[in-house]
């Protein structure tokens, strides 16, 4: 059984004013539309895609921070909901969350020692506070784990650099010894050498504690470096999932192909036409057909099902690259 | 690995960490001349008020018919009023009244406003709407007229005065706290606390209150002049502190009656009001510079 299993997850947010709704505009935005992923224990799953593809929302949903309109999230067999009951609290111990902006994720008026040990204090409850001394000692241990000296414990967030703040949020995510850490753009805003250090740190942590990572990033080079498998998102759907090596050498979805091309210098970039469509008025059939270079009639009519192309390589496309014959086969079968 | 070595803090950033943020903030507050003078004047006022019974050379309500309308002299620093009371002593006791009303009035207003503000900011939408409408209605009342109406019902006394001030100033604090809470609750650090499973009470205590203290201290310092003004105004109108008790307002009222014969009475009563108002306003501005990160000096 995988550590984390997300099945047909749907997240919708209400949108627009009551007047918009009266005029017939859709009253909600579908940010995630039937997303299914699985993360094994000790695995790093990369989640890549453009801004607005729903990467962050998926991460938040797993952390119990988004309203679930459908589908199921299970962590080690327990269902995650946004309802705050006892089960929700035990789940919190097993999930660490790292926000995109490490400085914003730290309270400007809270010393780092308190910030790092906040998960412990929350878990202990308001009625059973942990002594400040104990918290500082634990904070120093956690700081050491992420390679920061113990004098950081008494600092405030504005007294550390972006890279150091990032390490602090790593320490906080690890405080409860979680089984899964959701890292939202952990390398954003860091220069390359600091990025490298951070990725090495995350790798070392994973090796030591067998923690699973859900690694959300738009940086393909980073995804290639640290992940075991990659899921590509487009407009609230997973369009392709594959082992990292396969995905980079042999992308099957035209969107993945375009993403990789856009990032590899030298090759002529096959530019995607136009912008990603609005989440409010989603395209019919395959979401990607409005920008797809190989779209045909069927793409406008029918949403492609998820297809297994090989060992844990799944794609949602009628005409996956290198497997164009699949469609012909299917048509033949239908006829 | 190679990670740990270059993470050590540069030595010059280490030292100031030992100082508390309050000490640093205080240093910055008194670093400007206005801030330093304002702080000194406010400190003098507070000391004068607290130790009035020790400092005051005469009983503030002792009548001495022989020395009526005396001008300032070494025996009576600010002179005497129409029934021979020592004005300097009365100013000191008046400061006691003014600061007492300010302290209790703003504290009560702050507690009430902040509590409702946090409830409105964190609670369900309908509670927020009800509280906002209620507080906006209170804010729309002309304060002096409202105060006069309440005094007419409950009779003039210091407690009525504090009650009126608490009630009519609470909506100001409510508004600031509520808006701040609405901003704070969308920040990543509050979301992070939510993701950890923190209760609303914990979020309020550990994240909201510490981030609200700064703006609120500034607001209090800025509001104290207004409270002093209300206290003096109501006392001047005979609806606040009652004679023979000393209050800057009742003294002003005496001075007003005899302004042609003995202008020093009005001056002795009016100056402290002006000085206190200006000092607290400047103190508020100095505090704002300390707490407001946008003031340019950085934290």
From TrEMBL, chain A:
Xref: InterPro entries: AAA+_ATPase (IPR003593), ABC_transp_ATP-bind (IPR050319), ABC_transporter-like_ATP-bd (IPR003439), ABC_transporter-like_CS (IPR017871), Oligopep_ABC_C (IPR013563), P-loop_NTPase (IPR027417)
Keyword annotations from UniProtKB, A to Z: ATP-binding, Nucleotide-binding, Transport
GO molecular function, one term: ATP binding
Domain of life: Bacteria
Main location class: membrane
Subcellular location: Cell inner membrane
Record membrane topology: Peripheral membrane protein
Name of this chain's protein: ABC transporter ATP-binding protein
Organism: Jiella mangrovi
From TrEMBL, chain B:
Keywords: Cell membrane, Membrane, Peptide transport, Protein transport, Transmembrane, Transmembrane helix, Transport
Record-annotated ABC transmembrane type-1 domain positions: 95-284
Compartment(s) of residence: Cell membrane
Organism: Jiella mangrovi
Entry protein name: ABC transporter permease
Domain of life, source organism: Bacteria
Membrane-traversing stretches: 36-58, 97-123, 143-170, 208-228, 265-287
Keyword Cell inner membrane part of the UniProt annotation: no
Membrane topology: Multi-pass membrane protein
Location (main, coarse): membrane
Family per record: Belongs to the binding-protein-dependent transport system permease family.
PROSITE patterns in the cross-refs: ABC_TM1
